[in-house]
Design brief:
The structure is a homodimer. By secondary structure, chain A is α+β, with helices and mostly antiparallel strands. Chain A has helices spanning about 5, 20-35, 40, 135-140, 170, 185-190, 215-220, 385-395; strands at about 85, 105, 120-125, 130-135, 145-150, 175-185, 200-205, 215, 225-230, 235, 245, 260-265, 280, 285-290, 295-300, 315-325, 330-335, 345, 345-350, 355-365, 370-380, 405-410, 415-420. Chain A has a five-stranded mixed beta sheet. In chain A, strands 5, 6, 9, 10 and 11 form a five-stranded antiparallel beta sheet that branches. A five-stranded antiparallel beta sheet of chain A has the order 18-17-21-22-23, with no helix packed on it. In chain A, β19 (about 345-350) and β20 form a beta hairpin. Residues about 1-30 of chain A have low confidence and may be disordered. Chains A, B: One of its GO terms (molecular function) is heme binding.
């Protein structure tokens, strides 16, 4: 409907209600477009010659026009690029699935290359039968499929001290959502036979960092997967090929990649990654540990600082993601005025437990500035808090578990900035 | 559990029931593995040095070990590689999502390159207001998300004349399943205003073939999407970037790529692609047309001719895919003896309407030959027929809509062949 840009008229018509009124404009506009637009009136190269043959794409990649939709890292955020973070370009994605190629991942000593032939998984500690599994052994156990979000505990971590990073990708992109297939860890633990005194497991990776993490046996026997497929195909190298742990609802650091050992113990190991890191520094200087579950959260992905409004006023699609480590998303509210008033968004597509849920709100933008916020409510009744509500209890110096409400300031010119509202 | 390969004992134990009996073997085996296996006893390179840094993978690709998991084409199947087929490697995939990079696609004059800036979609014919939409216009309409299978009408087409192609990929791989996001076609048609005499739409692509297809207006107003995202990101070039049609449950040829025009008419256009092609030649020489809906079907993806059994007897995971253009899969039965006896498989993960459903059957293989079959039953009560049942009515010379039961002959040595059983 190219006429409305030219005429500067409202596009409300095409959202359904005002069809009759908008009709005349649209028809006139179309006539103009038809006579003036060479893309309509002339035969284009792509309509009169051959394109790529099938053998051009045994394994396809995104078209070059989309080369900006990639993972990005922030150099100063970690000491080294081998202990850094690849942020998902969530501002440019839609739906709920994150393609593996641009899905958030972090590693602590680089992404290692480990073949299926060389792969071994040991289960030892307080078990009746210590075991070593080859990759092939694992493929012979019953499998299950779990779509789950994997979010870094530090996602949004820079927001404790105020709006510091521009870009939805950098602010909230330490998250992905994939359909994982693998063996329930429960089956492997049953095979080894956990002794009555076994109360915790400790999962270790085969990379140099080992990234060892403890979790209660109850979780390990519940919904944890020893996964080898993501979104239907083998795990990518940087996602832990050939085998990673999937720990639905828990912080991403516990989703141990290149999984090499599960130890069963009577208590937690208290490793580096669960004491000096991945604990929550409180206002009074003490730190909370064992805060594994990711509380309900949401973020508007578009418009956002990397996805400004280019089309002017009129119909505007507001979209974002919501998730909860405690179950399903029940509702997402959106505010255009920084939290003064709220309206419910549409939950689009499937709503799955411990997985990303997509929401949309379709508005007729009048072209004035907005303070966009979203607020997730999960099936437990938990309501996503404001950042200030979190700071009251946890202070300003924490790094982890900031699920506070994000604010995007949309200016009249359509540009968007990361801000805080009082 | 590397001991069992060495000892040659049954692996039944590790599937749960025989834990006590299997325990002693497992423990002894583990001890052997621990002292003999350098992968357990020695520190490996990957555990003592850095791997890839984050900037190595702005957009990741599969690891080189998986380079065989790619789309493949069959040279003699079509006249030219610009009118050919990229088959999904379904024998090597799991779960339900097909990654875009290896998802089935066909084109009739090559995959064209069409930018969002150059993109136009025209709606004309029997409408109140002929319209031309830019890509940006489309992004301002309300969106929805639909996970759906896209299956070529000719998938399994070589099977009419008997088991002719080896490989699950080539026999049944003209199918993919992706999470699509886009605008309901209904909203665009409402915007244009369909006149009372408009009963059919005709969808055309911007490529040289145009691949025009008619469909009843009822379907167009039901669940058809004008899609621009697949599995969360922009459509790949070969999947119709920037915009394709998604027609859940209908044959893949109607999912017009590089969508450039929707015409509204009082009758079907009867184009080349719906008369000389994509009609069903019957026994008596007449042809059925308008057979768009893909009936319920299933196929075992592993073991299969490209996925033989390498691990010998004992626990074996049998897995496959089932789908129906008429709704949800209700049940999948698996036979090990060529259809003499059947047992129900597990439906794993979500069961969605008009989308791929994954099934699993875990057996203790005794090492003797098997004739593996699967049979899908959908929510309408429809039961997937045998090939012979189809041939009785449709003869042998058809190309399209062969949803007959597939048979894989598993030999005692684990190799698998495509066969037919009487």
């Amino acid at each position: 409907m190219s006429e409305t840009d030219e005429a500067g008229t409202s596009r409300r018509a095409f959202l359904g209600a005002g069809l009759a009124a908008g009709g005349a404009v649209a028809t006139a506009g179309f006539a103009r477009a038809q006579t003036a637009d060479p893309l309509i009136t002339e035969v284009q190269d792509w309509a009169s010659s051959f394109g790529d043959a099938v053998d051009a794409t045994p394994y396809g990649m995104p078209i070059h026009y989309e080369s900006h939709v990639v993972r990005r890292n922030v150099e100063w955020l970690t000491e080294s690029a081998v202990s850094s973070i690849n942020f998902t370009p969530i501002h440019a994605l839609e739906g709920t699935i994150t393609p593996q190629g641009c899905a958030f991942e972090r590693h602590h000593s680089g992404a290692i290359e480990l073949s299926k032939q060389d792969y071994r998984l040991m289960i030892n500690g307080l078990v009746e039968r210590p075991l070593v599994f080859t990759y092939e052994d694992l493929t012979r156990f019953p499998r299950t499929i779990t779509t789950a979000f994997c979010e870094c505990a530090a996602n949004g971590g820079m927001e404790w001290g105020g709006a510091q990073l521009e870009g939805c990708q950098f602010t909230q992109g330490m998250i992905h959502n994939m359909e994982y297939t693998g063996v329930p860890l429960r089956l492997l633990l049953e095979e080894a036979g956990v002794k009555p005194e076994g109360k915790w497991i400790y999962a270790e990776g085969a990379d140099a960092s080992s990234n060892g993490r403890s979790m209660p046996l109850e979780k390990a026997l519940d919904d944890v997967l020893v996964a080898f497929f993501a979104n239907g195909e083998a795990l990518r190298k940087e996602h832990g090929y050939p085998v990673r742990l999937v720990v639905p609802g828990f912080e991403g650091n516990m989703w141990v990649k290149w999984l090499r050992r599960i130890g069963v113990y009577d208590q937690a190991v208290e490793s580096r990654e669960e004491t000096s890191k991945y604990t929550d520094l409180m206002k009074d200087g003490r730190a909370r540990k064992w805060t594994w579950v990711m509380d309900a959260k949401s973020v508007i992905t578009s418009p956002s600082p990397q996805a400004p409004i280019r089309h002017g006023k009129g119909p505007l699609v507001i979209t974002g993601l919501a998730w909860s480590g405690n179950g399903k998303i029940d509702r997402v509210d959106v505010s255009l005025d920084g939290g003064v008033s709220w309206q419910p968004a549409r939950l689009t597509g499937d709503v799955k437990s411990k997985a990303l849920t997509r929401f949309h709100l379709d508005i007729d933008w009048d072209g004035s500035e907005m303070y966009l916020q979203s607020r997730a409510i999960d099936e437990t009744g938990y309501v996503q808090p404001t950042k200030d509500q979190l700071r009251e209890i946890r202070g300003l110096n924490n790094v982890y578990h900031n699920n506070g409400i994000q604010t995007w300031w949309v200016r009249a010119d359509g540009e968007v900035e990361n801000v805080e509202v009082a």
